[in-house]
Design goal:
With about 325 residues, the protein is α/β, with parallel strands linked by helices. It has 14 helices and ten strands.
Length: about 325
Amino acid sequence: MTDEERKFLLKISRMYYLDELTQAEIAKKVGVSRPIISKGLQKARNEGLVEIIIHDEVEHTINLEQEIANAFSLVDVIVVPTAEMPAEVAKNALSKAAAAYVLKQLKDASITKLGISWGTTLANIVKEWPNEAHEQLKVIPLIGGMGSNRIELHSNQLAYELSKKLGCNCESLYAPAIVETEQFRELLLQTPTVADVLEEAKKIDLAIVGIGNPYVDSTMEEIGYIGAEELKSLKAAGVVGDINSCFVCEDGSIAKNTINERVIGVNVDDLKQVDKVIAVVQGVHKVDSIIATLRGGYVDTLITDEQTAAELVHKIKGLVK
């Protein structure tokens, strides 16, 4: 191919693909017949001067969804396309998708009790949640939460804010998420105001939870629920993640001899009895935590962003080898 011919092919390619002119319009502009333009555009593709790439995000995310669902026998996996989105935009996209998914489930009139856990991801979901009346519902916090530190993330506050958007009632669990001793926990669990709400929480039809990594970007550490000594204890116990502030090991089992014995909330064994448990998670640093939780069978639906899903699938394939 001569330089002159290459220049001609590039010129008509720019006019066709970038300026979106028709072949007839290009032919008129450069003074040749339309068949010459058609053959030139084809040659430009054959010679590699033009490369057509179809960015099919839907197909990519569907493949990720299927691989994750098959690996852990999940009922549903939703991967939100977030590639190349700024962090804040991606977070909001995930929250809106999660809210839309839950609202779709709520069209089932048999769902009358909705449970919600706590954390930054769930707080953002509630923030992005549209107003849509579901007066038959009652929203129930799945874990305690008291104090003035980051109250907007507490389960009680999220249950209250969500109930306002749903136009329904809610309960409050008047107890800390984590107490200082097992003995104090037992005393609180015998208090009617605490025991009654936890008993009702065991009868929810649908739960929305997050999955956390206690060692990286941990909201629990930020709030002060766990400190250096607790983190050492968690590592010693083989903890890789938590769900509803219940810490789990790599194989999905509940960690022993940790602060699990001081948590006031619905435990994961009770979560397993809930008809639908939806985990909403964002962040590649949580992949090991997600895998452990899914291995434990504590959730049946996962909603996550594209980057986290891609890393999750990569890790799954590495585990299979």
